[in-house]
Design brief:
Length: about 400
């Protein structure tokens, strides 16, 4: 798990007659966000010669943030602009913009974070984790081998025009996997051997597994608050106030399957009480700690049960596919049967992509993110690129 990285502060001192071209140069490089600080304008800036009456040169000071200091310096050097750049400490009054540094295969999943806002400097960036979580939730609700393959093809074909459709590729792969798990292909259940169960034949396990997955995911979200507290230097405060709640929650989840979880839940209660006593040094803190713990347990129990909708929509997908096959039983013409089956699967794909995408997004944003995600950061916004290379005078694009 990584966190957003702050951009580096830069200062460029340039000859006045080059100062007008440098922002275009930085825009072409795509690695700078201008933020004027104590700017001073002098007569003659931008005019040929750029000299004061006594022969002294006029200079401009350009300040801002960069996502790549080496790229910015190399860009200025290649341009032959009369300018020097250095990277001092940023002014304390300014909030540095943040950058999500993820590999290309993780970047499509940054969309979930951006729907809420930029995570703070000491907040975890969940994009790498969502690369697994989002497809699993989507694929469970959309388990069908052939329909999943169709999503992969659509995503690969259109990802260059609409980059967000790269999410369909990951979702399609998960749908293929769960299609084999549920034994569904092209809307026909039993078309391939089921590795687990048929959702319509055995609904109870199909509903319970997502709840268990949700419990594990929310546990991870609570643990991330501890990691963020460590980054902020407030780990002791987290141990006194939140570690007990996490332990109780895990204990309750385990107690459903094994009595040993009860011991863990009692241990968590003790951590919560003694941690608050150690912090506040008063007996009233015990009642406050127990009350807060009960409130949090009620909230997270509702959050956990919300994941049952994943199993419910998996059953709905199976029911819709079963209804399609039942309606086509009376069709005797083979070509008409195949044509109607393909058309029916196309309708199911459109409906289920919308439903599964909405439910996946809802669970990620409102159940998982609320455990740890803080939108206190400011996103790095580089200068927009010039419309054409000719706008940069005597400067090659980098």
């Amino acid at each position: 798990m990584i966190r957003p990285q702050p951009a580096a502060w830069f200062e460029i001192i340039a000859a006045a007659d080059d100062a007008c071209d440098i922002p275009k140069l930085l825009a072409a490089a795509g690695c700078a966000e201008i933020e004027p600080v104590a700017s001073v304008q002098a007569a003659g800036i931008g005019q040929p010669g750029g000299n004061l009456p006594d022969g002294r040169n006029i200079y401009a000071r350009i300040t801002g943030w960069t996502s790549d200091a080496e790229k910015l310096a190399a860009c200025l050097e290649r341009s032959h602009a009369r300018a020097v750049v250095h990277f001092p400490k940023a002014p304390e009054a300014l909030q540095p913009p943040l950058i999500l540094r993820n590999p290309g295969w993780i970047q499509p999943f940054e969309i979930f974070s951006r729907l809420v806002g930029m995570p703070g400097r000491f907040s975890a960036d969940p994009s790498g984790l969502l690369m697994f979580v989002a497809p699993i939730l989507f694929g469970y609700m959309f388990g069908d081998v052939l329909q999943g393959l169709a999503l992969i093809v659509i995503g690969l074909a259109l990802q260059w025009r609409w980059p967000m459709l790269r999410l369909l590729v990951a979702g399609g792969v998960a749908a293929v996997v769960f299609g084999f798990v549920f034994g569904a292909a092209g809307g026909i259940h039993g078309a391939v051997p089921a590795l687990w169960v048929d959702p319509l034949a055995e609904p109870l396990p199909v509903l319970l597994v997502p709840i268990a997955f949700g419990g594990a995911l929310l546990t991870l979200g609570l643990a991330l608050t501890g990691l963020e507290a460590y980054w902020r230097g407030r780990l002791v405060n987290w141990l006194c106030r939140d570690a007990g709640f996490l332990t109780v929650y895990v204990g309750v989840l385990i107690a459903i399957l094994h009595p040993a979880g009860q011991v863990l839940a009692v241990l968590g209660l003790a951590i919560q009480i003694f941690g608050r006593l150690w912090q506040e040094r008063r007996i009233g803190a015990v009642f406050a700690a127990v009350g807060e713990l009960l409130e949090k347990l009620a909230q997270i129990s509702i959050n956990t049960l919300s994941f049952v909708r994943v199993g419910a929509f998996a059953m709905a997908h199976a029911g819709l596919s079963s209804a399609l096959v039942s309606m086509l039983k009376g069709v005797e013409c083979t070509s008409a049967y195949v044509l109607l089956l393909v058309a029916g699967n196309a309708v199911i794909i459109v409906i289920e992509v919308l439903v599964a995408s909405i439910q996946t997004t809802r669970l990620v944003l409102f159940e998982f993110f609320t455990r740890f995600f803080e939108t206190t950061g400011r996103e790095f916004r580089p200068l927009p690129p010039p419309e054409s290379p000719e706008e940069i005078r005597n400067v090659p694009r980098t």
